[in-house]
């Protein structure tokens, strides 16, 4: 008996869930999952042009409209970038439209924002604290790379970040490499370690400035700060970064858009 065409197989899986309580999966979502798997495998690198919707439709043996809907979702999630008249490209953190997607700080007064300057204060390898290991899906005692960074806006210290990364993936990440880097931090992770951060979950709370942050942010003890705890994920929803940021918000605010 002939093998079923891929479209038939996908439609069958969409219409007939397997396993107790399995959810219906529309065909375009299945195509979207296949595209994400190709991105995760590195079939198309950051910044590269992906095949046209016509070619992808032929590859998966589905309609062009089904592919377009899958690509539309990936573009809305900033995994892909559409360029008018040029095609669709894999998003890269070196791209101006994506570079500051994860930095949500904005000046209270429009036009007041100064140039963002990053200074790496520390980079070391260490055993993962239990809380960090759990959040990164690591075994107890596995190695992480810990980075401390000070971000200044218009030469004013504004954000103090503590960052933890899986040590096995970020081998070779050193203070020297970070200091010499002129690209966005996520751009460095992408080009040097093949890790693309595609989404993040954050929790925000108000805190009093801890003693160790006061000198670095040039504030008095107990000054109100915004603490932002972030978990960043790569393809396949794999946690790849834990970040705790302390934000000085006397002239800046944390901006978000809800759709």
From TrEMBL:
UniProt GO MF annotations: DNA binding; DNA-binding transcription factor activity
One Pfam entry name: UTRA
InterPro entries in the record: Bact_HTH_transcr_reg, Chorismate_lyase_/UTRA_dom_sf, Tscrpt_reg_HTH_GntR, UTRA, WH-like_DNA-bd_sf, WH_DNA-bd_sf
Domain HTH gntR-type residue range list: 25-93
UniProt xrefs under CDD domains: WHTH_GntR
GO BP terms in the entry: negative regulation of DNA-templated transcription
Domain of life, per lineage: Bacteria
Keyword terms, alphabetized: DNA-binding, Transcription, Transcription regulation
UniProt cross-references to PANTHER family, sorted A to Z: MANNOSYL-D-GLYCERATE TRANSPORT/METABOLISM SYSTEM REPRESSOR MNGR-RELATED (PTHR44846), MANNOSYL-D-GLYCERATE TRANSPORT_METABOLISM SYSTEM REPRESSOR MNGR-RELATED (PTHR44846:SF1)
Protein name: GntR family transcriptional regulator
């Amino acid at each position: 008996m002939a093998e079923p065409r891929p479209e038939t197989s996908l439609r069958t899986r969409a219409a007939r869930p397997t396993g107790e309580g399995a959810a219906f999966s529309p065909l375009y979502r299945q195509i979207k999952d296949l595209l994400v798997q190709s991105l995760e495998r590195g079939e198309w690198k950051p910044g590269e042009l992906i095949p046209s919707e016509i070619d992808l439709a032929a590859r998966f043996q589905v309609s062009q409209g089904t592919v377009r809907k899958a690509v539309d979702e990936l573009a809305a999630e900033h995994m892909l970038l559409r360029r008018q008249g040029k095609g669709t490209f894999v998003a890269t953190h070196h791209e101006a439209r994506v570079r500051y997607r994860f930095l949500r700080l904005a000046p209270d007064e429009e036009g007041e924002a100064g140039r963002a300057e990053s200074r790496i204060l520390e980079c070391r390898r260490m055993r993962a604290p239990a809380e960090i290991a759990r959040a990164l899906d690591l075994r107890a005692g596995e190695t992480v790379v810990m980075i401390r960074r000070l971000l200044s806006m218009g030469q004013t210290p504004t954000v103090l970040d503590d960052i933890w990364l899986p040590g096995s993936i970020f081998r070779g990440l050193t203070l020297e490499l970070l200091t010499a880097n002129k690209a966005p931090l996520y751009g460095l992770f992408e080009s040097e370690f093949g890790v693309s951060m595609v989404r993040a979950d954050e929790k925000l709370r108000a805190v009093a400035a801890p003693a160790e942050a006061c000198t670095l942010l040039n504030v008095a003890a107990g000054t109100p700060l915004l603490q932002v705890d972030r978990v960043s994920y790569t393809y396949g929803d794999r946690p790849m970064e834990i970040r705790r940021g302390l934000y000085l918000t006397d002239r800046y605010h944390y901006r978000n858009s809800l759709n």
